[in-house]
Amino acid sequence: MSNIDQTLAAARFEQGQPPASPLAAPLGKRSLLLISWLAPVAIVILWELLARAGWISPQVLPAPSKVVATAIKLTTTDSLLTDLGVSLLRAASGFAIGAGVGFTLGTLVGFSRLAEAAIDRSVQMIRAIPFLAVLPLVIVWLGVGEAEKIFLVALGVTFPIYINTTLGIRQIDPKLIELGRVQGLGRLDLIRRVILPGALPSILTGVRYALATAWLALVVAETIGAQSGIGFLAMDAREFLRTDVIVLTIVIYALIGVAADTIARWLERRLLAWHPNYGGAR
Amino acid sequence: MSGQIPSPSSPAAPAVVVSNLRRAYGSRVVIDHLNLRIERGEFVALLGESGCGKTTLLRALAGLDSIQGGRITAPRRPAVVFQEHRLLPWDSLWRNVSLGLQASDARERAAAALAEVGLGDRLDDWPRNLSGGQAQRVALARALVQQPELLLLDEPFAALDALTRIRMHELVRELVVNHRPGVLLVTHDVDEAIVLADRILVMRDGAIAFEHRKAGDAKPIERSALLAELGVLVSQAAA
Predict the structure, then answer these.
(1) Which residue in B63, B90, B127 is closest to A197 by CB distance?
(2) Per-residue pLDDT for chain A (282 aa), expressed as one digit of tens each?
(3) Secondary structure class of A281 (helix, strand, coil)
(4) Do A274 and B142 touch (CB under 8 A)?
(5) Nearest to B154 by CA among B83, B87, B86
(6) Does the domain formed by B7-78+150-239 have CATH 3.40.50.300?
(7) Count of alpha carbons within 13 Å of B114, Cβ hemisphere only?
(8) What is the pTM assigned to this prediction?
(9) Is the Cβ of B125 closer than 8 Å to some Cβ of chain A?
(10) CA nearest B63 in A: which residue?
(11) Where are the domains of chain B?
(12) What is the ipTM for the molecules in this complex?
């Protein structure tokens, strides 16, 4: 969702009040929406025209039509889909491992003061390191194979999930936990019925952060010594000055990022239907 | 109590018996050798100034606070309705009512309980769509679905508006007549105590300092007399 979409959604949410800005006042919501889409389309058209007129060298930035043609060609004759699959698999396995570790540690620390004393400070110290800075070390440990890439993604995912899980569990209203005890819930039922659902909004926020870092980690990991994947495609194309392929890989990274965010939003809407800030509709 | 019909000569086991209860926070004694017995079907209101230990007593009976001396004997875990409804916002109403219910027909029983409090058509609704009074009715249903022998009410109507409170009084009276749990109502509201309770207790210095039992058709206790027990002096005309 673009910023303007969000602004429009917010405007709709406020019972159809006209936007406060005097500049926007004479325009309806519909025309604002139209403009918000027309602007990027105009930029792409301008880019296409400039490229065709030869004002932009194809070495610098190929025409959008050329990028599309390259995409079709690579999909039909080459291994674009295989590379895409390889990249997605790396992201997914790294995410699963990182989320698993982050959630487990976060749950332990959220529940137990002892676990907090034992774990939290060390985790916070490691978190202070920008996780991409450890890349050279990871390459020394694991080489430049799949393990290195998955490790890097997992590392980037662990911390946002960890922090938000801990936070979510800590923020639960103690009165609800007391109620669970009064209703005779056992420890497991208390976690299942009260604590995890209460922590879920925070955990899902962590998931959205984690998706962004997972993606960033993958781009960096694939740029170094990959034999397949979207990043490999980009670095291979660099050798031959194929800017059309490079632009294509950038677009693919962007699209997958948008798709991941959409999935996260969908999950929030579905799982947090009860929450006035997410489920919204009533 | 399997199938045994309780007769007046051999009454059913009491809902709760408290003997010599003691609770202190540090050196401050909040409950001091308190004795209390509530029969099944008996409605007891507990009044007292803020900080007199009445909420501490209720929490001890609910098993939420440890005790440091004496005994609490209750046949089963009591049900509690708090001042706040404490509904889980992520569960539908029937899931809220059946929380902690170990039964395969949990939904049916929750539905029956919700119908009893007049919300039988809202099974799958969310708590956030309820008014304050409705939410408190769901909390009542959640307590009663456990079929408690002791029902603890911790100022459950304090946050409601006056009209809603009167409706809730009617509902609670009806529910207690139908289910016959022993009830301990902790309240600040003298009139509420007079309207609802069979027996009114005033707590002072960590023990029961005053007791009044409603006897048949006898004239109810004077409001001013009760207020005097609470340390509030009003002229007869004002009362």
Answers:
(1) B90
(2) 445 555 444 444 444 444 455 554 567 888 888 998 999 999 999 999 999 998 988 888 999 999 999 999 998 887 889 999 999 999 999 999 999 999 999 999 998 889 999 999 999 998 889 888 888 999 999 988 899 999 999 999 999 999 999 999 999 999 999 999 999 999 899 999 999 999 999 999 999 999 989 988 998 999 887 888 898 899 989 888 899 999 999 999 999 989 998 998 899 888 888 887 776 543
(3) coil
(4) no
(5) B83
(6) yes
(7) 24
(8) 0.77
(9) no
(10) A182
(11) 7-78+150-239, 87-147
(12) 0.85
